[in-house]
Specification:
By secondary structure, this protein is α+β, with helices and mostly antiparallel strands. It contains eleven helices and 19 strands. Helices cover about 30% and strands about 25% of the residues. Strands 4-16-17-18-19-14-15 form a seven-stranded mixed beta sheet, covered by helices on one side. Strands 7-6-5-12-8 form a five-stranded mixed beta sheet, covered by helices on one side. It is elongated. The N terminus is likely disordered.
């Protein structure tokens, strides 16, 4: 059991505040977090980061917890008072505030000093929220790391969303000339039963690569959804191929009387505080913004993605050239034996392409705006989205296309799905 104070006899400091020689509640001893040593470079960096983001509610909460860890109870109360005054609906902050005030009079036996199972259940959820928020600030991936899914963003793809279910975190990356850069991140709640969604009603959050498919303003929704909703395209073509069912997976806000929801309390959606949802909304583009949902995000150095990017772009370029050649044998080598597109399997697809190509004197294919996103939970599978300009002596068109590529046992990348958007 975590304790705000030790069970050993307490003593009073010069201000008459009860202190403990044990680590404070929500400190390293309670949650096994590697708190930086006071005065260390790491600690100074953490303090500077908090100080530079004082306007952010979560930063104020973490600042208070830092004070608690360092046995600065009055300073912690000062920080949490500012947060409660700013956001009285922040239930976690209210609980921390109550504990800190009570700690000035008596030892606290547990986080949220309440009795009775019916009262402890909500407190357990708030404890999990505190854990998630604190974990993020103590083990942030850093500016020199990227999610392994972000192999390449297209020039027209202004941003991408990455959701880490295990950490209850949503990351917004902006596409810059030097590659994806973290622009913001937000605490988020996901499905009650965790990942990975398989069937309707399982209350799990899907894992995969999705795209924002719509926007629903708050005035068209019940108050439960808060500041609005962005539906995503679950189930996508891969989900349907695996027989997954369900619908209505959204990114949305919370009820107006709520600041945030504890981790894993939705029916499968990703929920954000209304202020965070409003902050995120201007960056979302229908049918263009990707939402990559991972059970646990794998953070890597950007250089680690270069080789995979080069290998995949070379495979796609080879596919393009072999299509132009009208040689069905060369073309077919780019498709996996388990390829599917709509009702066509590998054999039906090749028969169709052979018949079409035989009628053409030439084929020219140009590809632009290529994005490459590794699919979480599916080793060696990548979603390629691009703009395709096709022309022949008989037909011309401009199409947005999506392909799923998977690395085969022989090491070659081959297409397992292809379709127009």
């Amino acid at each position: 059991m975590s304790r705000l104070f030790s069970s050993r006899p307490a003593h009073r400091n010069g201000r008459g505040v009860r202190q403990s020689r044990a680590a404070a509640w929500l400190a390293a001893a309670a949650f096994a977090f590697p708190w930086p040593a006071v005065g260390s470079d790491a600690a100074q960096g953490e303090q500077a980061s908090v100080a530079s983001t004082q306007i952010h509610d979560e930063a104020l909460l973490v600042e208070a917890l830092h004070h608690v860890h360092r046995q600065r109870l009055d300073a912690a109360i000062g920080s949490i008072e500012s947060l409660v005054e700013k956001n009285p609906k922040f239930r976690l902050a209210q609980l921390v505030y109550g504990d800190l005030l009570l700690a000035k009079a008596q030892p606290i036996e547990r986080f949220g000093n309440v009795e009775g199972r019916s009262r402890r259940e909500p407190v357990r959820g708030l404890r999990d929220e505190a854990l998630s928020r604190l974990q993020h600030h103590l083990s942030h991936p850093g500016a020199d790391r990227l999610p392994a899914s972000l192999i390449q963003l297209s020039p027209t793809q202004r941003q991408v969303i990455v959701v880490d279910v295990d950490r209850s975190r949503l990351y917004l990356f902006e596409n810059t000339r030097s590659g994806p850069e973290l622009a913001a991140d937000y605490y988020a709640s996901t499905g009650k039963n965790g990942p990975i969604k398989v069937r309707e009603g399982d209350r799990k959050t899907p894992v995969g690569v999705y795209f924002v498919s719509d926007y629903i303003p708050p005035e068209k929704l019940p108050d439960f959804y808060g500041a609005g909703a962005f539906p995503i395209d679950y189930p996508n073509v891969w989900d349907r191929r695996l027989g997954k069912t369900g619908y209505g997976i959204w990114l949305h806000g919370v009820p107006s009387d709520t600041y945030s929801r504890p981790p894993r309390t939705s029916d499968g959606c990703v929920t954000l505080a209304n202020a965070d949802f409003k902050s995120l909304a201007p960056f979302m583009e229908i049918d263009r913004t990707a939402v990559v949902i991972a059970e646990s995000v794998d953070w890597v150095a950007p250089q680690a993605l270069v080789e995979q990017r080069q290998t995949l772009t070379a495979a796609i370029e080879s596919w393009r050239q072999d299509w132009e050649s009208r040689d069905i044998d060369r073309y077919s080598r780019h498709y996996a034996p388990d390829f599917r597109s709509g009702r066509k399997n590998h054999a039906a697809w090749m028969a169709y392409k052979k018949a079409v190509n035989a009628k053409k004197r030439y084929i020219q294919v140009d590809i632009s705006d290529l994005s490459l996103l590794a699919y979480p939970g599916e080793p060696h599978m990548v979603v390629a989205t691009f703009r395709q300009a096709y022309s022949s002596d008989r037909h011309q068109d401009l199409t947005n296309k999506r392909q799923y590529w998977r690395r085969q046992a022989d090491g070659a990348w081959r297409i397992i799905y292809e379709g127009a958007l």
